[in-house]
Amino acid sequence: MCWQLNGDGIFPRLMLAIDRPDLVEDAGLQTNAGRWQRRDELGEATGEWCAQRSVEDVVGALEEVGVPAGPIYAAEDLVADEQLAARGMIQNLDVSTGEEVLENVAFTGITQLIGGESIAIDHLGPDLGEHTDEVLSWLRLRAESDQ
Fold this sequence. Notes:
Elements: H1 10-17, H2 21-25, H3 32-37, H4 39-51, H5 55-64, H6 75-80, H7 82-86, E1 90-96, E2 101-108, E3 113-114, E4 117-118, H8 132-138
Antiparallel strand pairs: 1-2, 3-4
C-alpha cells in the first residue's frame, strides 16, 4: 500500500476517513519522519479499513474528504478500461515465447498522445537472453576468450 504518509494536510483527512482519530492526535505521527517510522502500523490500520469495503467505496470515501485515491489495476482491468481504449492505449501485438507465438497480446501503449493518438509500439524489447553474454562480459563475469 502506498498512502499519503508524507502529506501533513492529507494525513489527518485519511485517518479521519478510516475512523482513526486517535492516530491524528498521536504526537509521534505529527511529522513525515514519525509516520515513516510507523508505516507498518499505519498500513495495517488503512488495510483493515479497506478490506471491509469495495474498491468503489474506498475511492469514493477518500475522494469525498480530499485524499487522492484510485484503484490499482491488474492487467485485465487495464484492457477493460474504456478511457484507455478511447485513448488508443491498448495495443495488440503477436509475441514469441521462443517456442510458440502468442497472437494478439494486449499491451498498454505509450502514455503521451501525439496528434491525438498513442504512438504505436514497434518493438517489444530483446529476446530473453539476447544480451546475456554482453552483460556478463561487461560485468567481467565471463572472460572474453569464453565468448
